[in-house]
Amino acid sequence: MPDSTLGEADGGPTLSVEGVSKNFGGVRAVASVSTAVTKGEIFAIIGPNGAGKTTLLNMVSGFYKPDEGAILFRDRDIGRLKPNEIAELGIARTFQNIALFRGLTVLDNLMLGRHVRLKSGVFASLLYWGPAQREEILHRRRCEEIIDFLKLSDLRKTPAGALAYGLQKRVELGRALASDPTLLLLDEPMAGMNQEEKEDMVRYVLDVSAEWGTTIVLIEHDMGVVMDISDRVAVLDMGEKIAEGTPDQVRADPKVIQAYLGTAH
Amino acid sequence: MFHRESGYYKTTYKGDMAFYPLPVGRWSVALVGFIFLVVIPLFLDPYYLSILCLISIAVVGALGLNILLGYTGQISIGHAAFMSVGAYTAANLITKLDWPFWLAVPSGGIMAAAVGVLVGIPSLRIKGLYLAIATLAAQFIIEWVINHTPAISGGVQASIEVPRPVVFGEAMNTEIELYYFLMAFAVIAIVATMNLVRSRVGRAFIAIRDQDIAAEIIGINVFRYKLYAFAISSFYAGVAGVLYTYYLSIANYEQFLIVVSIDYLAMVIIGGLGSVLGSVFGAIFITLLPIVIRIFMDSFGAFFFDPVILAQVTAQFRLILFGALIMFFLVVEPEGLNRLWLNIRNYFRIWPFSY
To answer: Which of A99, A126, A136 is facing B211, going by the closest CB pair?
Structure first.
């Protein structure tokens, strides 16, 4: 166990995955993958379908428990924690298939994203006037900042389920940002978007990184996007990590070319 | 077009988050309040006041069930059992220890909440139909335990007589006094629920209802919040049970059978799931339904049925209509009476223009 006073502040990794494996029955979805994400970088995970990318992300966010290995977030082992405990530590994520609270307004979705930063309990909520109201107003301010940032001002009172697909993806990003995360996990943030929506989303991801210094891990299939915005890229294939490095290094790696294109026989 | 919404600018978040940001909303609420607090008690016959008393009690109970079913998405078919827990707790405290109402009412609620948590800890690990069956079991277990423990119920098939509540040295003996007494609790319950659902805990409930996986990922401890919902819901049920005991001057397990649980389910479904106003509409509707049917059958029943069987027909008719109405609402207007009300309101918002 590393000394918890060292690490991130001294240039150590924000997230480090150490020899993590996950089996589903006989299928080895993730096979002893190790990698580390440095503070403030944009780290992409790519790979063909079924390579274990989402499984890896699900282990970091606590949905699955790794069968082997350890996941360290700011030098703390989070491999056994529940998703809600991991969220409290400062990890937020979005989903490949949008998982918004469809009946609630955009604003309420963001306020829910901020749940872990609010403290009101049952009694304060029932009474409302006083501490709970002050808290609501205080955190509403932060949510409004994010609404401005994502240009959702005119939609704040619209039910999330009534929005177009691209906007829903943006609201989901907003909900993740609302908790002021240290580490942001994005599972295919640009999937199913048109070119214009993709460009918008890329801009927001870069802005989040630049403005708040949030460490970002993203899974993405659009190679153009990945190669443009990532500081480093890890490539998974059949559950194993076959390459890691800067976009240029990865692009030139013969194993990556083989995994994506296959080889001539 | 009775009012215009434009021109009212909200310059603070507090103003934007108020219950009724528009003056027309505040005036409407003031008007409804005036009618219920001044006009009705002055002019209404005691018989109708007693119906309003029943409605007030039903509002408290229905709000409780709506927090659980409508807002958190967890079903309970044992609501009446939790009412009986509150009722018997208070009845014993009042008769044996002479506790005043302001201690007895919350004690009944707290005891019901405690039993609710006890039932919830095993039950809330399962979902949907399985949870329904678990709460159904709780209904029968609680019913049986109360009935067969003489220390609680005073013996099998017995009932406990409870004196009327005393407020500021004055016993609430007349219908008007009881009306004000019960209405006060209904108003407190309504305001508390509205507060709950617009702040942190209530939002977490809705998150669990809509997307329990996403709720977990944003940091909500799903199991704990389900338990909160169950406890709050049972607390409301317990309070409603105590109020009903005060109203009847008697605690009797037959007032809290499974049929009553079904009545409350009907209230929140017909009124509107996940809506405070819907709970009120549902409580009014389901309380009035048997009364309206009876008045109708008293007046016109003789045209259709033999007087000998009329009484039986009336009783059955209520059940048939009840089932038919629940089916009707589930098919035609799943969002219940509240949705109808919103449709009417939205129509008149821009009336007489079409948009």
So the answer is: A99
Using CA coordinates, name the residue in chain A closest to B16: A137
d(CA A261, CA A264): 9
Is B39 among the domain residues? no
- Give this prediction's pTM: 0.91
Say if the Cβ atoms of A101 and B211 lie within 8 Å.
yes
Comparing A57-61, B224-228, B314-318, the range with the smallest average pLDDT is B314-318
Beta-carbon contacts of B115 under 8 Å, excluding residues fewer than 6 positions away, are B82, B85, B142, B234
In a domain, B264, yes or no: yes
Is A17:A66 a contact under the CB 8 Å cutoff? no
Of B14, B192, B207, the CB nearest to A101: B207
B29 inside domain: no
ipTM: 0.90
Q: What pLDDT, in 10s, does the model give residues B96-138?
A: 999 999 999 999 999 999 999 999 999 888 888 999 999 999 9
Residue of chain A minimizing CA distance to B214 = A99
SS3 B226: helix
Amino acid at A218: L
Query: Which residues in chain A are contacts of B220 at CB distance < 8 A?
Result: 84, 115
User: What is the predicted pLDDT for the residue at B321?
Assistant: 83
CATH code of the domain covering residue B162: 1.10.3470
Res B5 pLDDT > 80: no
- Matching CATH number, A14-90+181-260, of 3.50.50.60, 3.90.1150.10, 3.40.50.300, 3.80.10.10: 3.40.50.300
Q: Tell the residue number behind the tokens 């199991």, with chain if given.
A: B223
Instruction: Let me know: does B234 contact B256? Beta carbons within 8 Å.
Output: no
For residue B75, tell me if it sits in a domain. yes
Binary contact (A115, B204; C-beta < 8 A): yes
Burial (0-12, 13-18, 19+ Cβ within 10 Å), B110: middle
Give me the phi and psi of A94, to 5 degrees please. Answer: -115, 165
> Can you tell me the distance from the alpha carbon of B126 to that of B306, in angstroms, rounded to the nearest whole number?
50
Closest in A104, A125, A144 to B199, CB measured: A125
Read off the tokens for A71.
Answer: 């996941």
If residue B47 lies in a helix (H) or strand (E), which one and from where to where?
A: helix B46-66
pLDDT tens string B7-33: 788 888 888 888 888 888 889 999 999
Band of residue B308 on the pLDDT scale cut at 50, 70, 90: confident
**H or E segment and range at residue B192:** helix B175-197
Report whether A47 contacts A256 (CB < 8 A): no
Residue range(s) defining the domain that contains residue B65: 44-350
Strand partners, A71: A17
* Token representation of residue B199: 């702040």
In this prediction, residues A240-250 reach a mean pLDDT of 93
3-class secondary structure, A7: coil
Asked if residues A192 and A180 have their Cβ atoms less than 8 Å apart, the reply is no
First to last CA, chain B: 11
Total domains present in chain B: 1
The answer, yes or no, to whether residue A5 has pLDDT greater than 60, is: no
- As a whole number of angstroms, the distance between CA B121 and CA B228 comes to 11
